[in-house]
UniProtKB/TrEMBL annotation:
The keyword Magnesium does not apply. Pfam families: Aminotran_5. The lineage of its organism: Eukaryota, Fungi, Dikarya, Ascomycota, Pezizomycotina. InterPro entries: Aminotrans_V_dom, PyrdxlP-dep_Trfase, PyrdxlP-dep_Trfase_major. SUPFAM superfamilies: PLP-dependent transferases. Keywords: Pyridoxal phosphate. The keyword Methyltransferase does not apply. Residues 37-222 form the Aminotransferase class V domain. This is Aminotransferase class V domain-containing protein. Gene3D superfamilies: Type I PLP-dependent aspartate aminotransferase-like (Major domain) (3.40.640.10).
């Protein structure tokens, strides 16, 4: 119902093409000089939206790049630990794994599965940090989410950043689904590193992400990925003479800003479209508050509708009525997770079929079946809703967007029910295993 990779309006598309045409008309002029001016305007617009200084705000291509930039710039010593969470985005979890192979860093995971309350997540984090410290280890950094990708739930990042501060742990926030999705005041949050995609919810072209690093931590970010012209040797205090962007050689910008001003030859036009995207959100959609309220309300209604159609439930904290908007913390976002009647069992032990299951698959089949469902949606119905295995069931994730309304989800309910019936009849089981 909404692209996992974001969507943007025609006015933003047209602005991007203007930038691309201007680039092609005179590549040297645009890349060396003109683009930098547009980049500063875009950074200023986003810094104002997020309530942070301009000189703490730069761009990277996506949230995964931002997380890698933060974590790979830190120097690790024996005994250092990174704490991450069971529902971390898979690419970021693999970044953690990669770091444990190439540095002395150790990793500790906060284990849980949804549904779970924010309070319980925070307590489990505290317990993991305490356990590591009791072992004489140094908890160097923690990797947090704003909105978890799968399941699509709000994460207690505000409380966790506070815990990190109290414990002397660096906080690295993966806000891939943050900016444009939920209210963000990064000045108030004051995380040590924060990255958020603009192409998912802010309506910019992809890839485009904001990377915020407060001044106190900018000395830790020694290089971009890849290392480029803005890199300075530790013994140097002057811009590199090989920097192709002459306008960046002035004294008005910090070395941190210069570091990210030109990172290899890529299409930077998505960054430059941020002012146009913000103008569209303000003048056409009615502003940030109206957008976020509409999308969250739509996601709630859509989740309730799908759950009723499937005879299942919306993911919510234990003991909370999922329809109680004020009570549920994990539903305070523009995503809803609906359980399908397809159960997932561990084939290595004697399976227990849960009540309400209309089909049962093995855990080995789950990923293949989810891809089959998504592929059938794309090729047959020209839509897609992510499906994933979690806590012994197959779930689906819905997103509310300004270009959708409840009628779209009523239509999708019929699509989902039809596909589920095909699974129950056995049509999908063997086909799923063939998908590569």
């Amino acid at each position: 119902m909404a692209s996992s990779f974001g969507a943007f309006p025609k006015v933003v598309r047209d602005q991007r093409r203007k930038f691309q045409d201007e680039t092609e008309s005179s590549p040297d002029l645009f890349i060396r000089y003109t683009s930098v001016q547009h980049l500063d305007v875009a950074r200023a617009a986003l810094a104002k939206l997020l309530n942070v200084p301009l000189n703490e705000t730069v761009f990277v291509q996506n949230a995964t790049t931002g997380v890698n930039t933060a974590l790979r710039n830190l120097a690790y010593a024996p005994g250092d630990v990174i704490v991450y969470f069971a529902t971390a985005y898979a690419a970021c979890a693999k970044t953690v794994a990669s770091l444990t192979e190439t540095t002395p860093l150790q990793a500790r995971k906060v284990e849980y599965q949804f549904p779970i309350s924010h309070g319980e997540i925070v307590q489990r984090f505290k317990d993991v940090v305490k356990q590591a410290k009791d072992e004489g280890l140094n908890v160097r950094v923690a990797l947090l989410d704003t909105i978890v990708s799968q399941p699509g739930v709000r994460f207690p990042f505000e409380e966790l950043v506070e815990v990190c501060r109290a414990e002397g742990v660096l906080s690295c926030v993966d806000g891939a689904h943050g900016v444009g999705h939920i209210p963000l005041d990064l000045g108030k949050l004051d995380a040590d590193f924060f990255v958020s995609n603009c192409h998912k919810w802010l309506y910019t072209p992809r890839g485009c992400a904001v990377f915020h690093v407060p001044k106190r931590n900018q000395h830790l970010i020694r290089t971009t990925l890849p290392t480029s012209h803005g890199f300075l040797l530790a013994s140097s205090d002057k811009p590199s003479p090989t920097n192709p962007l002459a306008v960046s050689e002035g004294a008005t910008k910090t070395s941190f800003e210069g570091l990210f001003e030109f990172v290899a030859t890529v299409d930077d036009s998505p960054y430059l479209c941020i002012p146009t995207a913000l103008e569209f959100r303000d003048k056409v959609c009615g502003g940030e508050d109206r957008i976020m309220k509409y999308c969250e309300s739509l996601a709630r209604e859509a989740g309730d509708l799908l759950a009723e159609a499937l005879g299942t439930e919306v993911m919510c904290e234990p003991g909370i009525d999922p329809k109680d908007a004020a009570a549920s913390q994990i539903r305070r976002c523009a995503m809803s997770n609906v359980r399908t009647p397809i159960a997932v069992v561990d084939e290595t032990v004697a399976p227990t079929v849960p009540a309400g299951a209309r089909a049962v698959i093995s855990s080995q089949q789950a990923a293949f079946l989810c891809r089959w469902l998504e592929k059938e949606m794309l090729y047959t119905y020209n839509t897609v809703v992510p499906h994933f295995a979690h806590g012994g069931w197959i779930w689906l994730r819905l997103s509310g967007q300004v270009y959708l309304e409840l009628e779209d989800f009523k239509w999708f309910a019929g699509v989902e029910k039809e596909l589920i019936e095909r699974v129950i009849k056995g049509e999908a089981a063997m086909e799923a295993l063939k998908i590569v």
